[in-house]
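re: that chain from earlier
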Amino acid sequence: MGYSGRYSGANGEQAAALNRAMILNAIHRGGPISRTEIAKRSRLTKQAVTRIVDKLLNEGLVMEARRRQGLRGQPAIELEIDPEGAFAIGANIDRDHLTIVAVDAVGNVRGRIHHELRFLLPDAFVKLMEDTVSSFLRRKVITESRLSGIGLAIPDWLGEVQVIGFPESYRQWSGFDVRAALSKITHHPIYIDNDANAAALGEIEYGLGTEMRSFFYILISACLGGSLIIDGIRHKGANGLGGEIGWLSMAVTEGPLEGETRPIGDMLSLSVLINYLAERGIAIAHPADLLTLEGSDRAVLSGWLKKMAVNLAEAVMDIGMVVDPDGVILGGRLPVRLVDELLLYVHEEITRRGALAPSLHRAAASEDAAALGAAAMALADRLCLPSADPAHRNHAPITAAMRPSPVFA
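^ sequence. v structure.
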C-alpha cells in the first residue's frame, strides 16, 4: 500500500504529494536504487513510480547514476539524488562564532566561511550574512535558481543567558527580529531553529541518524544544549522545550558551591572550560587552541574533562531511564579529539557505577554540525523528507518575553 492508500481522506493531489515524498525519501535514503526496488518498498505500481521519477528527473532533483551490472536481463538503471538539484545555505550564530556553509542536495559542503567573533551584535551579523550569501552566489559556489533557502541555527535566549563575559550590548538580540532582517537580504525562504535541534537534524540526514531512529543529541558549544529525536523526528515537547538538557540539575562536588544543586549547563560548556583554563593561567582564544596544550596545561584540560564526565555520565543514565533511546550522540564545537576523550571518561564512569546506559557516540558532523543542520532544514523541505518541519518557516528564537530565561552559563 502506498501513502495514498494509508490516508483514506486524502484527495488525489494530497496522495500524489505523499507518494512523491515517499519516492524522494527512498532515493535519498536508499540510493543508488532502481525503479523496481522503489516500487517494492513503496508498494506502488511500477508505472506510478516511473511517472513520478520521470517528473523528478525533469526537475533535476534526481539523476540516473549508472546501470547495475551482473544481473539477468536488462541491467537496472539506478537512481540517486542529483547533488546539483538543490542547494542550501546554513548559518550558526553563537556567543563566540558565526559559521556559514553552502551545501548541495546530498549534503556536500561547497563553501564555508567562519568567523571566531565573541558576542557578535545583530547588525554586524546581518552584514556578514549578506556579504557571505553574495560571495557564494558571485563565485558560483551554488546555483541561485536552485537555492532552496537559508537556514539559521541560533540559540534560544541568545541575548539573555548570562554567559561568562556577557556584555550589556548583547541584549540587543532579545528584541531583534532575525527573520525579518534576513528576509531583507534574500527573497529565498528562511528556516530557523535553535542550534541543538539543527545539529540533531543534520545528524538525522547525514550522520548517525541514518542508523539510529531514536537518539538524544548533546551539543557542547558556548552553552550546553540538547535535542531528542524519536523515530527520525524531533520531539518538541508540550512547550517546545524538549531536549533542554542544560537545565538538568546536578550536585556540585567541589569548590565553594560544593553540596549545592546547579544546572549542568553551569558546569559543562565551552565557555566554562575556557574560563576554567584562564583562571589557571592557560589562555585559549579559539577552540582549536585546546589541541595545542602540552605538559601540565594538557593535564589540567584532561582533569576538567574527567570531572565533567561524572556529570555527563549521570545525565546519560537519566536520559536512558526516561527515554531509552538507541543512543546518545555528543557533538558541538569541542574539538573531535577532546570529544573522544570525554566519551572515554564517561564510559569509564558508567562502568564504575555498574549502570545501564544508552550507547555513546561522537557526532558525525562534528564542529560545523549546527550550520550543516541549518542547511538541512531547507533541503529537507525541498526534498520532502520526513524530517522537514513547516514550523521552521515561522519559528522565532525564544526570548524572555516568551518564557523565563534559564540561569545557566
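Confidence is low (pLDDT under 50) at residues 1-10, 404-409.
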